[in-house]
User: What shape does this take?
Amino acid sequence: MADGPQETDGPVEDAVTLAVLGAGGDLFTRLLLPGLASLLADSPGLRVTLVGAGRRPWDDDEFTRLVADGVPEDVRDAPAGRYLLEHVRWAPTDATDADDLRRLLDGAEGRTALYFALPPRVTVECCEVLAGLDLPDGLRLVAEKPFGTDHESAAALNERMRALVDEEDIHRVDHFLGLPSTWTLLSLRLASRALAPLWHRDQVESVGIVWDETLGLEGRAGFYDGTGALVDMVQSHLLQVLAVVAMEPPAAMTSRDLRDQIAAALRATSVWDGDPVASSRRARYTEGTVDGRSLPSYVDEDDVDPSLETETLAELTVQVATGRWAGVPFRLRSGKALGADRSELRLTLRPPAHRVPGLTGDPGPEVLVVDLRTGDLRWELTTSGRGDPSELERTPLVGRLGEPRMEPYGEVLRAVFSGDARLSVRGDAAERCWEILAPVQEAWRSGEVPLEEYAAGSDGPA
Assistant: This one.
């Protein structure tokens, strides 16, 4: 179905119910709860009824204590926080049981958002059961990535969810789209007189999108082993950043216009030269030291199955076959247990067509860097030297955005509660991301791309 005309960062509805399937898991305590707390701090008039659902044998008091522990004291003491803690309940729930789901949704106050913090397979089964229930008016569905496990399963999940609600009421969460950097990119691309012309093949030699982490597995083998960096990071987060970089300017900042352009950019994206072997790389970390911490080899981490050959670092070069970007390589990379955290979009600019004789030195290419965590900017420009003014050097100009108004998951929930689908992943875009990666996954499964190794704490494979 067509998207609704969401025009602006609209007001959050005063009374909402957030029902979270899988609220006993890591996602809720690590990301969703801090995000909700930051949203309440930013929206003092918001009144949220929180219903946690899962298989854990908790009661309302136990879940309320968990929620209270995750909410800062200043938020707990404010009216919005007090209301939340007075309206928390726990619903022991089998997400595939009709009676359990009916009880979960009964008594919802205001607009209801049903959050699937579940594996894709369970989400599909849950949606099949929901199709037989009377659902609350205005229900919004919120799905966590990964959206399916391949193109076929993503399409099946989309079909199940669209049978329940309209596309505009489905929020597929990629919290990277809630980071300050996303709005920085949109502003640079669409509103900056100085920088908007840069985003073109005539100006840009290459694009790099990197998310490197010093963190290792950190006890997440249950999710990560068998998933790996390609699916965990590149298939979702980094391709979404690429789409914002590569899209054509939308006619307006509406849900339909913006997401039409994002989808078009992804449809134009494919593996560089159609060669997944030459254009991709995979590796996993071995024993090493990161920031003074000793890490074991990935294969020696608890609950890891070495036979799965799960990569902890993935690199992929793609092309965007449009008049704007033809011939420009987009290099995507993400890895764990590396020597430094690095999260950036990097535009490497082409050299000038002509250098006036008498200017010397080789300062290297100019680059524009956006920090993907903070949205901060660094523009490295060619300037005269500090000594000999005819000797060129590169000088950075730095712009810092300051603290964001809320956590990325706070932005996600704000968008859900206000019905703002602009930076939710649309169904066709979710399916297309799997199509882009399919030839790479096949080349990796067949062993055509070797699984390399790198020491924890290093810069990655040589």
The CA atoms of residues 376 and 401 lie 6 Å apart. The first helix runs from residue 26 to 42. The chain has two domains: 15-173, 179-403+426-455.
